[in-house]
C-alpha cells in the first residue's frame, strides 16, 4: 500500500509488504529522457519497522525484512508547470526485486485534481493501472495487482495552477547536446549577435560600395560607331573607356576575356594584325603580327599585353601561345593599377576582396574557438556559432561590391563592353 500528500515538496509515505519473499529491496533511478534527466531530490528517508532506507543524488534505496514496515521520505521536484495546469508526478513503485501482490495509492491535495494518470508495467509500458479515479471528496486513488521485479507504477495528477509551488528541475545528460541546445537565453543572444553582424556588414557594404558621385538621371544610349571625314566607320569607345577597362569594371577581375578584348582593340587601332592561317590538316590557327610598335598612345596595361604576346618576335601563332602559356601577372597588375589611377575604384578589387576574406576568416576562426570554449564550459555554444556564420557571410558577400566611381557605375549599368 502507499499513500501521500502533494505539497511544494511532494511528501509521500509508503507502507510496504513484500509478498514473494521474506525480504525485499527497492532501488529508484531518476531519469527523464535519453539526453535529459528529471531531477528529483529525495531527503529524510526512514523505515518504521523491519528495514532501512537511504538516498543520495542518484538513487533511493529501500531494504525491507519480513513483516509490515512503513517507509517515509520527502520528494522535491515532482511539481511541473504545464501551462494550463500543474502536473504532480512520481513513480510510486519501481526497482523492487520482489513481486508486489497489490499496490494502492491515494493522494491528499490542497485543491481538487483535474485529472489523474496511472501507468503500470515495464518501464516503457503505457498500460493503465487496474484502477485510477478521483473519488468522493476529490481524492485521487489508484490500484494495481501483481508487479513483478523491475516493473513500476507511474502516478500523476493535474492540479489547478497555483495549487502548490512549481519545483520541477530538468538537467541535460548529453553535454554536447546541452551546449548546442536552443534555450531562451541562447536564442536572445543569437538573435542580437546576428542582427549586429548583419547591420555591421550592411553598413560597411554601403559605405565602401557607394559611388563617389551620384548620377543625376538614367543613362541614355551610347554611340560606339563613328564616321571620319572620308565616311569610314570606326569603333569609338565611350568617354575613351577601353575594352579591357570595361571588362575589369564589370566583373572586377582581370581575366583572359579582358586580354582578348584588348588584343582585338589593338588590331582595330593598327598596332597588331590578326589573320587566319589554315594548316594542312584543316585545323584553323590564328597569327598575330606586329604592325606598329607600342608607343606612348598606349596605356601601360596595353603595352603589357603587347609585350606578353610578342616579346621580341614579329609574329606569333595562337597555337604557340596555347602551348607555352602566357604569364598575365604583369597585365593584371597594370590593368588593376590603371582602373585605380583613373579613380574608378578606390582600391584594387583583388586587394579589397582579400581584405574582406581575411576579415571574414578571422571572425570565423574566432567563432570556432568561441564555440569550442563555450561547449566545454558554460554551454550556449550557439553564440559562438553565430560569430562563425557572420564571418562566413562577410567573407562570401563582402567582396561583392568594391568602391566604384560614377564612370565605373555607368559602365556597369550600360554594359558597353
Could you name the CATH class of the largest domain? Mainly Beta
Low-confidence stretches: 1-22, 212-216, 406-410, 412-417
Beta strand %: 25-35%
Provide the CATH topology of the largest domain: Immunoglobulin-like
Q: Major β-sheet, in short?
A: 7 strands, mixed
Number of domains: 3
Q: How many DSSP H or I helices? A: 10
Based on CA atoms alone, the radius of gyration comes out at 41 Å
Shape: rod-shaped
| Mean pLDDT over the full residue set | 77
**Architecture per CATH nomenclature, i.e. the level-2 architecture of the largest domain:** Sandwich
Helix residue percentage = 25-40%
Number of beta-strand segments: 21
Q: Helices and strands: which structural class?
A: alpha+beta
User: In whole angstroms, how far apart are the ends?
Assistant: 92 Å
3D architecture notes:
This protein has helices at 175-179, 184-209, 243-251, 256-268, 300-310, 318-324, 329-341, 349-376, 381-397, 406-414, and strands at residues 2-5, 11-16, 24-29, 36-38, 41-48, 51-55, 59-64, 69-76, 79-81, 86-93, 100-108, 115-121, 131-134, 140-147, 152-159, 170-172, 225-227, 233-235, 272-278, 284-290, 315-317. Strands 5-8-2-1-11-14-13 form a seven-stranded mixed β-sheet, with no helix packed on it. It contains ten helices and 21 strands. Helix content is 33%, strand content 29%. A hairpin with a 5-residue loop joins β19 and β20. The chain has 417 residues and is of the alpha+beta class. It has three domains: 2-172, Immunoglobulin-like (Sandwich); 174-223 and 345-417, no CATH class; 224-344, no CATH class.
Amino acid at each position: 500500500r502507499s499513500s501521500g500528500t502533494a505539497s511544494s515538496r511532494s511528501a509521500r509515505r509508503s507502507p510496504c509488504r513484500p509478498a514473494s519473499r521474506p525480504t525485499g529491496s527497492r532501488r529508484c533511478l531518476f531519469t527523464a529522457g535519453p539526453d535529459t534527466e528529471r531531477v528529483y531530490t529525495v531527503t529524510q528517508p526512514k523505515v518504521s519497522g523491519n528495514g532501512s532506507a537511504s538516498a543520495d543524488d542518484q538513487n533511493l534505496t529501500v531494504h525491507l525484512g519480513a513483516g509490515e514496515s512503513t517507509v517515509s521520505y520527502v520528494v522535491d521536484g515532482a511539481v511541473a508547470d504545464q501551462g494550463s495546469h500543474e502536473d504532480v508526478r512520481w513513480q510510486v513503485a519501481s526497482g523492487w526485486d520482489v513481486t508486489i501482490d497489490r499496490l494502492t495509492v491515494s493522494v491528499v491535495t490542497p485543491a481538487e485534481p483535474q485529472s489523474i494518470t496511472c501507468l503500470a508495467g515495464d518501464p516503457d509500458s503505457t498500460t493503465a493501472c487496474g484502477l485510477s479515479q478521483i473519488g468522493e471528496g476529490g481524492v485521487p486513488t489508484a490500484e494495481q495487482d501483481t508487479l513483478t521485479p523491475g516493473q513500476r507504477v507511474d502516478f500523476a495528477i493535474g492540479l489547478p495552477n497555483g495549487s502548490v509551488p512549481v519545483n520541477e528541475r530538468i538537467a541535460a545528460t548529453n553535454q554536447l547536446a546541452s551546449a548546442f541546445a536552443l534555450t531562451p537565453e541562447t536564442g536572445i543572444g543569437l538573435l542580437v549577435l546576428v542582427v549586429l553582424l548583419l547591420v555591421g556588414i550592411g553598413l560597411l557594404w554601403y559605405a565602401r560600395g557607394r559611388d563617389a558621385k551620384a548620377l543625376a538621371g538614367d543613362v541614355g544610349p551610347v554611340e560606339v560607331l563613328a564616321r571620319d571625314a572620308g565616311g569610314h566607320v570606326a569603333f569609338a569607345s565611350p568617354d575613351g573607356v577601353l575594352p579591357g577597362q570595361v571588362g575589369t569594371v564589370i566583373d572586377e577581375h582581370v581575366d583572359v576575356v579582358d586580354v582578348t578584348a584588348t588584343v582585338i582593340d589593338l588590331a582595330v587601332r593598327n598596332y597588331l594584325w590578326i589573320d587566319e592561317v589554315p594548316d594542312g590538316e584543316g585545323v584553323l590557327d590564328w597569327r598575330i603580327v606586329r604592325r606598329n610598335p607600342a608607343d606612348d598612345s598606349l596605356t601601360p596595361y596595353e603595352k603589357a599585353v603587347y609585350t606578353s604576346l610578342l616579346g621580341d618576335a614579329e609574329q606569333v601563332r595562337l597555337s604557340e601561345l596555347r602551348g607555352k602559356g602566357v604569364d598575365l601577372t604583369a597585365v593584371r597588375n597594370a590593368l588593376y593599377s590603371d582602373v585605380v589611377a583613373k579613380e574608378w575604384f578606390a582600391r584594387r578589387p583583388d586587394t579589397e576582396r582579400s581584405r574582406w576574406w581575411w576579415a571574414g576568416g578571422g571572425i570565423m576562426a574566432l567563432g570556432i574557438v568561441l564555440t569550442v570554449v563555450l561547449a566545454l564550459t558554460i554551454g550556449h555554444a550557439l553564440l559562438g556559432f553565430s560569430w562563425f556564420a557572420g564571418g562566413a557571410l562577410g567573407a562570401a558577400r563582402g567582396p561583392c561590391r568594391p568602391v566604384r566611381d560614377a564612370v565605373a557605375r555607368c559602365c556597369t549599368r550600360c554594359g558597353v563592353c
